[in-house]
From TrEMBL, chains A, B:
The keyword Metal-binding does not apply. This is alkaline phosphatase. Keywords: Signal. Residues 664-683, 691-722 are annotated as: Disordered.
Length: 722, 722
């Protein structure tokens, strides 16, 4: 408009290609800047005794900026040495057989110019993988890959020196998906009354004694998705966007990527600890999935559900016999294909869970009535569960949702909320776990999902529901007399760049006839005023802190750095979750414009987006997110740290560090105790009888599309949510 | 564009007027929803012994939605009672004379419709003020105003029960103005190298053991400015936008509003503690000003500077003899008017400070060489000081700035940074304070100022300079062997709704010829990549963590919910701070458009703003901000609390709570000790010889414009920064 741009086009593109090896956003392989790749890569930390896989890849690009002769060296070797010790080959070190050589190829674009020109770079790969190894002795290790004769890639690994003392019996981990400090502040404003600058009540989170910040970035990019951020929180290993419980490799198979154990797997293996998974998302979604799934592709929802009950069956791995509780949405990954289910191996997973002894419940009434001494699967809707705002205020929106969990097209209009699910989960876990203790993850998934679609009201409603759930969970733990032996954590997996910057006089906004005049409705600073959400109106929700008026004249001026084209009327969307951007007839399906239906109250302001036009919603942001801690070990969680440290701190508190005994008689600490033999540094040699040993049959052997060369995978997306 | 708006216009406006008493953004008087007003208002907390003023106002609107007969009741009475005690008149309670009745009128608009129609509501006021009182006994108090016969307004006050034990000798308080967690995360990304998801170094802030969040909102609006947020941090009393060290009243005089004592004033009064003020802003700006200034109008810069050396001279107040150190910009409020100074009473404040024994320095070289045993005033530029990025990378921008601190039009091209100023301040305070201890406030002011103009690079540069200053200050305190007796705090006064949501391929962006195609340059999630700021380039800044390349191909996709019209090219502004929006010839001066010069690198994307078109820059946001704490009392600063609690925690740590003795022999605790007599609850009766007693001569008696009726004040703005 005010500038003249210089279309440099193809000429610029070609001169740039020479430099794209340094390009940071289009990566050949994010964890490997050289042609010899060790996974786990450099700078990784491990919990003592935590199982993991090792993979080596040798890359031979056949074209592009790093072109070689295209023949990857197959005579590479990998050695491992503990600091000060002798280097041994990896097979020698772990007393395992030398694995078979694997080969494949993949392709990628070096930058956007290359993508526009459709000139992919193709890479041939030679690889080996060592499965289920573990390091027990704390300290530094060096893994050295030698290839192409004298080329070397060195990976520094570190086993943390964490004492094996169990300090908590239980862990209750709340995750507000996508929840930032900014959102907590906004939720407090609309949910709690303030008089002359003093809140008359505050959030349950505000009352936690210890506060930390954790860094959410991926291993290879600075913006994460929920799959690899959940992986980091649960396993102490950062990974790549879309990966669950594995480091990404470049192979086409989404199930052969190098795995590492999650806190749930270790806790269950070491202590027989009981696990509960609760989410308002479809339950195969990333945040619940990352406890048991080990796949490069979070979109393999059917396999994710299978992993929840069977664990990892295609390779030797931790034994697993299913959580005590799974509560959430996502019926489509359980229902028989006859009624439209999209399940693993086309099986009926309701039947599989029932056959495994699970009690099945499908609505809020049944959930409340169900006994607390049985393993329970509660699936309450197809897809993501209904939002707090629709369940409690705009209830008509549940009619016609066709989300009944039997997948037969009826409505799911009797869904529980996060609070009801979590309190029941606590009851069940507490009655079943006995001295072994329990670990429950409870996720407010739609903070994220509603922020993605810029539906600030619903997102803040979900956040307030999470806070209400926390409040009632604490009370319930006290009633059950287990509060003092339960570590309670509240955190998030990443942020969205949301904040509130004033108020909006929605009456004035509507009364103006052009966008520039409408903007005057935004009240800044001294004109931002008080919150009208809590001071007026008639809505009351028992004893809880929620807005009493979701549709006041003066609303919040709020928003995002990251957004698609949109129309902002800054009023609640009474008809259900917002759809900010849509395709316009006659344009490409990846060319989104502001949704003309997205100002149901009339008179919104139209904005062009900051994201690629292929984006129909907002995206995640960089910001560190908060960790609130209360209970045993709370003192570990103060200050600023990396997301992986949340895992190490939880593991420390649960006594999961399997360090060698120091001559004082085994690991009898904490709840439940244990005694076992162990061979340090030996594959599978922990003296327990594992059902699966050695390389099992790949679960997804020849599935169409996956074994083809080329890396331009189409990861499945569900509503495009990350 | 896609919607049809309904211009309801005047008809809607008139129907709405009946309801505007509930309107939250256009307030008659924010702390007083009724017609009888007590200040301090309901819900206020006090430190025991903290001086404050009381004001009562009776309002009689003559028109508008609350119209009365227009005659305010002059026979009102105010009583005070301690919980369980007998109510006494305020004059009786504090053994003071009954003050004289004051009257005035003011006007305001009830909402935007009224402002458009220029139909102000006018209010007649009757008022009394009781000056410099204090409450000493911890507990609850009730102030009851009776007016119009039987109408009552009740204010609940609370004196916190804080032990009088001094736990720290010194306090070093860093303020990153406008700094949020999101910005710290972004600064870490561009200033610290990461390998496979592990930072190889981290921020100094990241190493603080204790983390808290504080709520920044005003007493009467949810978005604050820096004046009243600094007031809350320093004094434990939230106030109104633009107010420093006072509760706002409605009178036209900006110097008669009810005051309260700041932490610096109390510390200096009780212990003779030494004070240092350091800022990269003009030093009369809000954050340094709020320690000594007591005015409704932060724009009274000359008077602010006078308060720094003389304290409050128009009313009985705490004795004050000036900080040991004042370092910053803002020469214009010191220079003689003969060379363009804008000073209090047209005096030469350089001369006044010199006469008071201050050593004066004007540039970085002189600062370094100046002795550490003298009171020192260092003023290094007209206006705000140069930014780190311009001082260190784009140094040519300092040429021609005409900011020489003698105000004679030369360049200020030898300015120190925040680090140099803060380390020298520590030296001076430490050598001068002896056993009395010191309190230094060091402000990175231009985090805020550069975020206001959407100059993300400069803002993050300032943040990294702050972090570097913290790092070196900790080292220096250790060298001086006072680290263990110094509480170090890092916090902010408010946020800006900033976050990073991806990377930008600036080459690709420039090569496209329309805005929609340009947006494809934004890399989300797996395409966000690594930071290129730290991995490439040649810039090196001694031992510190700053970007080595400020102008990489792949930059950050970042931004704001709140912004004026703008052009984003997502590249560093090499010519100096960004000017995002300008007037366009032929339009109103309050009608801002994207600055056509604001894409110096070419090819930016044009966005319409989210703020009123009168905004030429971004605005503050709601988010809670971080408190980092290290040192004595650090444990007080964990968790989530209100901004005022920062004051109470500092006061607790410094032993400033003047609670009655409990029979064990006076207040001899901590460093320096003290012994004094005190009459609880008595005006001015603390047994010390104050220079000023009784109602002094109003400093600004008949200044033009201020004693006229009407409240539509034009507060002075400097570059429009908040």
């Amino acid at each position: 408009m005010y500038f003249s741009s210089s279309p440099l086009g193809v000429a610029l593109a070609s001169t740039l290609l020479a430099a794209v090896a340094q390009a940071q956003t289009y990566q050949r392989f994010g964890t490997c800047p050289t042609l010899g790749c060790v996974i786990p890569p450099d700078q990784q930390d491990f919990l003592a005794g935590q199982y993991f896989d090792i993979r080596v890849e040798i890359h031979a690009p056949i074209n592009g900026s790093e072109a070689t002769n295209g023949v990857p060296d197959e005579n590479f070797s990998l050695t491992i040495a503990k600091a000060g010790g002798r280097a041994k080959t990896v097979s020698e070190y772990f007393e395992s057989e030398e694995p078979e050589l694997e080969t494949w190829d993949f392709s990628y674009y070096e930058d956007l110019f290359a993508e526009d020109a459709d000139t992919p770079s193709v890479v041939n790969v030679a690889s080996k993988a060592w499965r289920r190894v573990a390091l027990y002795e704390p300290g530094d290790y060096v893994a050295t890959l030698t290839y192409n004769g004298t080329e070397q890639t060195v990976a520094h690994w570190h086993v943390r020196d964490i004492e094996h003392v169990r300090k908590t019996k239980n862990v209750l981990l709340f995750i507000g998906d996508g929840m930032t400090t900014n959102m907590i502040t906004a939720a407090r404003l609309i949910g709690h009354k303030s008089i002359n600058g003093r809140y008359q009540s505050t959030m349950a989170m505000d009352k936690f004694p210890v506060l930390g910040h954790q860094m959410t970035h991926s291993i290879d990019t600075f913006i994460t998705d929920s799959a690899n951020s959940a992986t980091a929180l649960y396993s102490g290993h950062k990974s790549t966007v879309n990966a669950l419980g594995v480091y990404a490799d470049t192979s086409p198979d989404p199930f052969d990527d190098p795995k590492f154990e999650s806190v749930a797997e270790i806790f269950h293996r070491m202590y027989g600890g009981h696990i509960g998974l609760v989410s308002t998302a479809f339950i195969a979604d990333a945040t619940p999935a990352a406890f048991t799934a080990h796949t490069r592709d979070r979109g393999e929802y059917g396999a994710v559900i299978d992993s929840m009950i069977h664990g990892t069956i295609n390779y030797t791995w931790t034994n697993w016999d299913g959580p005590d509780v799974i509560f959430g949405g996502g019926a489509e990954n359980f229902c028989s294909p006859e009624v439209g289910g999209e399940t693993y191996m086309d099986l009926d997973y309701y039947q599989i869970f029932a056959d495994a002894g699970y009690n099945l419940v499908y609505n809020a009434t049944a959930l409340e009535a169900t006994p607390s001494d049985e393993k329970t699967l509660g699936i309450f809707s197809v897809g993501n569960m209904a939002k707090w705002l629709d369940r409690n205020v705009y209830k008509d929106n549940l009619n016609g949702n066709e989300a009944a969990p039997n997948c037969e097209g009826g409505d799911a209009n009797n869904q529980p909320g996060l609070k009801e699910m979590t309190l029941k989960a606590i009851d069940i876990l507490n009655s079943r776990a006995g001295d072994k203790g329990w670990f429950i993850m409870s996720e407010a998934a739609s903070v994220d999902k509603m922020m993605h679609v810029l539906d600030y009201d619903r997102a803040l409603g979900e956040l307030l529901e999470l806070d209400d759930t926390i409040k009632h969970s604490i009370e319930h733990l006290k009633e059950l007399d287990v509060f003092k032996e339960t570590l309670i954590l509240v955190t998030a997996d990443h942020g969205h760049g949301f904040d509130v910057f004033g108020s909006v006089d929605t009456h004035y906004l509507k009364a103006q006839d052009n966008d520039r005049d409408k903007r005057r409705a935004v009240g800044q600073y001294e004109k931002s005023g008080h919150s009208q959400y809590i001071n007026t109106g008639e809505l009351r929700y028992s004893d809880s802190n929620f807005p009493s008026n979701w549709d006041p004249r003066y609303t919040l001026a709020q928003g995002f750095g990251a957004n698609p084209d949109r129309v902002e009327d800054y009023q609640v969307n009474k008809d259900g979750p917002r759809v900010p951007a849509t395709n316009i007839t006659g344009f490409d399906e990846d060319d989104y414009f502001a949704n003309p239906e997205d100002s149901p109250n009339g008179g919104g302001i139209t904005y062009n987006g900051t994201l690629p036009v292929s984006a129909d919603q907002g995206v995640h942001s960089l910001t560190d997110v908060t960790v609130f801690a209360m209970g045993p070990c709370q003192e570990l969680f103060g200050g600023v740290y990396n997301s992986i440290d949340v895992f190490f701190k939880m593991a420390e508190c649960l006594g999961l560090s399997d360090v060698p005994d120091k001559g004082h008689g085994g690991h009898g600490h904490g709840w439940g105790g244990k005694g076992k033999g162990r061979n340090w540094g030996k594959v599978g040699g922990d003296g327990k009888g594992y059902e699966h040993y050695g390389e099992g049959k790949p679960r997804y052997g020849g599935k169409g599309g996956w074994n083809q060369g080329g890396r331009k995978r189409e990861f499945k997306k569900r509503n495009g949510y990350h």
